[in-house]
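Incident review: delayed structure delivery

Summary: a single-chain prediction request sat in the queue longer than the usual turnaround. Root cause was a stuck worker, restarted by the on-call engineer. No data loss occurred. The affected request and its eventual output are reproduced below so the record is complete for anyone auditing the incident later.

Affected input:
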Amino acid sequence: MDRAIQVDLKPSFHISSAHSGEVLNRRESLRALGAFLAGSPLLAQQDPLRDHTRVPGLNELLTAFDFEAVAYTKQPRAVYDYRAYGSDSEFTLRRNREAFEWVELIPKRVVAGPVSTACEVFGTKMAFPLIVSPTAAHGELHPEGELATHKGALAAASTPMILSNNTSFPFDKVVAAAGSPMWVQLYPKQQLEANRSYLESAQAAGAKAVVVTIDQQVSYYERSLHDRNLNSSTRGSARGPGMRPTMGNPYRVADNRLWYEWKFFDEIRPFVKVPMIAKGVVTPEDAKLCLEHGVDGVYVSNHGGRSLDYGPSTLEVLPEIVDAVHGRVPVLFDSGIRRGSDILKALALGASAVCIGRVPLWGLGSFGAAGVQRVLEILQAELVQAMQYTGCTTLASVDRKMLLTNFP
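Output delivered after worker restart:
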């Protein structure tokens, strides 16, 4: 069956240059078809768009890292890299992962009873303190896009999902695709009415919380420039470095988000009727300002290393932000999480729950909704195992005493 598919597909790549637009359209269709077929158990062992490769089956993947390798195999270079890269030299991207190696868990050999991971954050009841972070354009990874991600999250113990401001499908359609809790993310817009329209529509469709991103202002991605220069296909490079020269600044940095002010939270508060969370906080000072401006939650994040390069990892700054908030509002956390033990470390340093962005995308790009479900369940199982090894039977028993930290 695989051989027949390969024979049928190859001729479409040899059409004359006079029909280059048609070639692009066919290539896009074939890639979408490949993403769809990759999720089928009938074709899980062979990627129909790549000769002489064996793609592992879903049940063969044992860690989140396994899913990244499969997603890399299946996706065009620019599509994979858009999710993988960080800002500039990618120092902060690397540091986010390295920081978890500077924190050790102290084991306890006897656990008194079964482990419970249930919690409630911002009125959302969760089986695990785990939320899918907002990430853009899932439709580039799978034909069902965010609908498939939502279905996978629902199947994995009804994991909540934060829907990005930049989605492949409208909020109401994603909400209707499954029944797990749904929050919505907002990139601030200068026109107040544009924020009002978006937020009121999302809340009417069922958004349980609003996450306002404040750290993604002037990021620049060098790896995307290399993709544009090396990859003959224009797909994915349309996002490019994301920063085109403007009249105000001809040097690659756009001015469209350089206006952010704390008063924005005061301005949108009247039409936000659900918990409002500030995403992108990495200093205690900003955490305190969040409280001064009526924010209901602090979300510690550096956008997965996609904001300021040469900034600290989020794990390093988490304890001091938790101390600054002093229990007045919940603290969410993301950036760098790849294992259940990573989740436990963040919880022990004070996070109320953790959010993961790239890992579900690897599941989506590998096997669609089933991949999302599987990779989330792996993290959940690893968290339970880590809690058992450290003698924690509830999240209330998780604290800093179970850690040895060695931050530089």
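Verification: The chain has two domains: 1-55, 84-217+256-405.
Action items: add queue-age alerting; document worker restart procedure.
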